[in-house]
Write a structure and sequence with these properties.
Helices cover 16% and strands 42% of the residues. It is of the alpha+beta class.
């Protein structure tokens, strides 16, 4: 049997939780997704997160992701995959020694 794992074709960037953005907190949420044989996400579960505030935003965004479904002998199949969702603040100023 020849198989191919599902892979992401289209992502939707999560909304950054305002409370985390205002405090300059970055993080990551690891999700377990069930990808249907049509490439849609039909189940989402949080495996781990650096902060609970990121979990809901990550789950909401991946429900709109689209995948090339996994295949077994060329036939699309449902498959479970793990995906990280990173929350990174662009241009976050680093703390300088002078400001300490």
């Amino acid at each position: 049997m020849v198989s191919q794992d599902a892979y992401v074709l289209e992502t939707v960037k999560p909304d950054y939780p305002v409370s985390m953005l205002q405090r300059g907190i970055q993080g990551r949420t690891l999700l377990k997704l069930r990808v249907s044989s049509s490439g849609e996400v039909d189940a989402v579960q949080v495996v781990a997160t650096t902060n609970k505030a990121f979990s809901e935003a990550a789950m909401k965004s991946v429900k709109h992701w689209y995948f090339e479904p996994g295949k077994a002998d060329g036939v699309p199949i449902s498959q479970t995959v793990l995906v990280p969702v990173d929350f990174v603040i662009e241009d976050l100023p680093s703390v300088s020694i002078a400001s300490l």
